[in-house]
């Protein structure tokens, strides 16, 4: 797979939470860090994602916001 996004984080799937339309997939990317993504259940099935499997978090964003509580 070759894509233009430069922020590619390889990890191991630690959990998949099924929902009616979307699921939540969590990747352990090492160093005590994880990335969580909400993707469609259709995509989870098409990609055959399973806990323990390897996957990539691919991040393509034009802006990243930082906020604080009041």
The largest pleated sheet is described as:
4 strands, antiparallel
The percent range for strand residues is over 45%
Q: Could you say what the CATH topology is called? A: OB fold (Dihydrolipoamide Acetyltransferase, E2P)
- What's the alpha carbon Rg, rounded to whole Å? 13 Å
The CATH architecture would be Beta Barrel
Write structural notes for this entry:
The protein has a single domain, classed as Beta Barrel (OB fold (Dihydrolipoamide Acetyltransferase, E2P)), CATH 2.40.50. The protein starts with 6 loop residues before the first strand and ends in an 11-residue tail after the last strand. A four-stranded antiparallel sheet has the order 3-2-1-4. It has one helix and four strands. With 70 residues, the protein is mainly beta.
Write the layout of secondary structure elements.
Layout: E1 7-17, E2 22-30, E3 33-40, H1 41-46, E4 54-59
Which characteristics define this entry?
about 10% helix; mainly beta; 4-stranded antiparallel β-sheet; OB fold (Dihydrolipoamide Acetyltransferase, E2P); single chain; about 70 residues; globular; 1 helix
